[in-house]
């Protein structure tokens, strides 16, 4: 009699496990959609010779299309750890990069608080699109381009008969 109950209990456990596995294995067509991750790179000025992680806020603005069921559709924060400082043209710079959690396709805003200011940009995130977000301290947006400094204004040439002004 004791063997019968053990057999029956073992059978129930095996049957329950088989049903649980059968229920999980199917998946959906949504699983075939890509997981889209953006790579965030940061180049920030070091203060006091230390480098800290930079919290980059990623906020959806206008989502469009179908997303993998694991994709985020709400605001998230990606911590970008930085290393250094390294000497770059006489300035101590901290460098780092990190990948976001999976993002739903659409327009997302990226915002990074760097030493000189908080920089923001919007980027259309698509599976085959530009997924590199680069923040550089002193450069507007997230293209990684720093605008060249404007050259100093040249003094106007003196008109005939006038002497140039002394500085």
What would a concise description of this structure say?
By secondary structure, the protein is mainly beta.
How is the topology of this model organized?
Blueprint: H1 2-24, E1 39-45, E2 54-63, E3 76-80, E4 83-88, E5 91-99, E6 106-113, E7 118-125, E8 132-136
Structure description:
- By secondary structure, this protein is mainly beta.
- The protein has a domain at 29-136: Immunoglobulin-like, CATH 2.60.40.
- It contains 1 helix and 8 strands, in the order αββββββββ.
- The protein has one helix at 2-24; strands at residues 39-45, 54-63, 76-80, 83-88, 91-99, 106-113, 118-125, 132-136.
- The strands form 2 sheets. Strands 4-5-1-8 form a 4-stranded mixed sheet, with no helix packed on it. Strands 3-2-6-7 form a 4-stranded antiparallel sheet, with no helix packed on it.
What can be said about the biggest beta sheet? 4 strands, mixed
Widest sheet: strand ordering: 4-5-1-8
* Strand composition percent: 25-35%
Structural class, from secondary structure content? Answer: mainly beta
CATH topology of the domain at 29-136: Immunoglobulin-like
* Rounded Rg: 28 Å
Residue-averaged pLDDT: 80
Dominant shape: globular
CA distance, first residue to last residue: 112 Å
Run of helices and strands: HEEEEEEEE
The CATH architecture assignment of the domain at 29-136 turns out to be Sandwich
Share of helix among residues?
Answer: 10-25%
Which CATH class of the domain at 29-136 is shown? Mainly Beta
Number of strands: 8
Contiguous uncertain segments of 5+ residues = 9-15, 17-23
- How many helices? The count is 1
